[in-house]
């Protein structure tokens, strides 16, 4: 049994590192803590059959491939390898979003100072850009979890932006588009492929 733990640990380390994931990110995908993932990778315990199946799906392998022997395994210490540099996908996402809003503030100030015009629509335009950035990064790092809510917010932000840009004509009717548009987004995210 100990040999099987070491085999699985070796494979999990290599697959996770090859996928560019941290233990926390893998744990998030599996609904386990990074401490549990660390225990698996240290060979202290082995994931149950369901988790092995989920891991195989994540890495595009079979469970059998996860359980195959690999002679290159070296036990990890408690803190993991010192050379492994990891980053938090949440921090990268926040940096991107703060960068967008920093650019919006810079453009606002430049327009205000250089052209003596207060163009507040810049901030309204930053909202859809922020949501598109969040959608892309969420799809890359979180497997698209909560993408439906982000897309629904994006649709509402775009309709609101168009309304604000056309504010002098008071086109409140644009908000009537929101009801079927949000329903369409909801239904699109709930389309399921039938199993053969």
Would you mind describing this structure in some detail?
It is a single chain. The chain is an all-alpha fold and 196 residues long. It folds into 2 domains: 2-67, 434 Repressor (Amino-terminal Domain) (Orthogonal Bundle); 89-189. The protein has 9 helices and no strands. Helix 6 (89-114) runs antiparallel to helix 7, helix 7 runs antiparallel to helix 8 and helix 8 runs antiparallel to helix 9. Mean pLDDT is 86; it is low at 72-85.
Are there runs of 5+ residues with pLDDT below 50, and where?
72-85
Rg from C-alpha positions?
A: 23 Å
Please tally the β strands and state the result. Answer: 0
User: Per the principal axes of the C-alpha atoms, what is the gross shape?
Assistant: elongated
Brief summary:
The chain is mainly α and 196 residues long. It has nine helices and no strands.
Helix-strand layout with pairing:
Layout: H1 2-18, H2 23-30, H3 34-41, H4 49-59, H5 63-67, H6 89-114, H7 121-141, H8 147-165, H9 178-189
Key attributes of the depicted protein:
196 residues, 434 Repressor (Amino-terminal Domain), 2 domains
């Amino acid at each position: 049994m100990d040999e099987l733990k070491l085999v699985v640990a070796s494979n999990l380390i290599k697959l996770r590192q090859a996928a560019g994931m941290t233990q926390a990110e893998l744990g998030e995908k599996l609904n386990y803590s990074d401490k549990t993932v660390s225990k698996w990778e240290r060979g202290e315990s082995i994931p149950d059959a369901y988790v092995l199946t989920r891991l195989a799906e994540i890495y595009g392998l079979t469970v059998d491939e996860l359980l195959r022997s690999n002679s290159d395994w070296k036990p990890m210490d408690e803190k993991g390898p010192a050379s492994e540099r990891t980053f938090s996908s949440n921090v990268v996402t926040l940096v991107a979003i703060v960068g967008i809003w920093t650019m919006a503030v810079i453009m606002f100030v430049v327009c205000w100072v250089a052209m003596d015009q207060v163009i507040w629509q810049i901030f309204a335009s930053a909202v859809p850009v922020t949501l598109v950035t969040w959608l892309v990064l969420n799809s890359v790092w979180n497997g698209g979890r909560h993408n439906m809510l982000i897309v629904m917010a994006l649709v509402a932000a775009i309709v609101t932006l168009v309304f604000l840009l056309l504010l002098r004509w008071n086109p409140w009717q644009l908000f009537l588009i929101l009801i079927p548009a949000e329903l369409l987004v909801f239904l699109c995210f709930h389309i399921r492929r039938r199993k053969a």
